[in-house]
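Worked Example 4.2. Consider the chain below.
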Amino acid sequence: MQQPKHQFWDADSFSPTVKYRGLVARLGAPMGEVLLKYRVMPEDVSTDMAALEKAIAAALPKGVARLSKAEARPFAFGMKALHVSIVVQDEDGNNDKVEAALATVPGAQGAELLDMGRLM
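Applying the procedure from the previous section yields the following structure tokens:
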């Protein structure tokens, strides 16, 4: 793979270094996307998981994050948790915006970040 010739690119990951991130964004280069995986706990056993999924999708900030996948999985003692995958733009503060949005979802007791990784 050919190395970029610009000094504001990190040669190992082909992504802009933090110092030059603003410059690259102004030049129109894509910043990339990050996949966040959360376990969302419902308030009680009788919570409708389909309705909870719709509430999460509606609560996410527009233009910042989108719901990619949601799956109800057994958690403990007959209780299920909703595992959601959310795609956000790779910019400072977007993860915090998603966590703040998940905290406001009706029917959700809380959300725990399970995994985070860059999408290529």
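The longest strand covers residues 65-76. DSSP finds three helices and six strands in the chain. Compare this with Example 4.1 before moving on.
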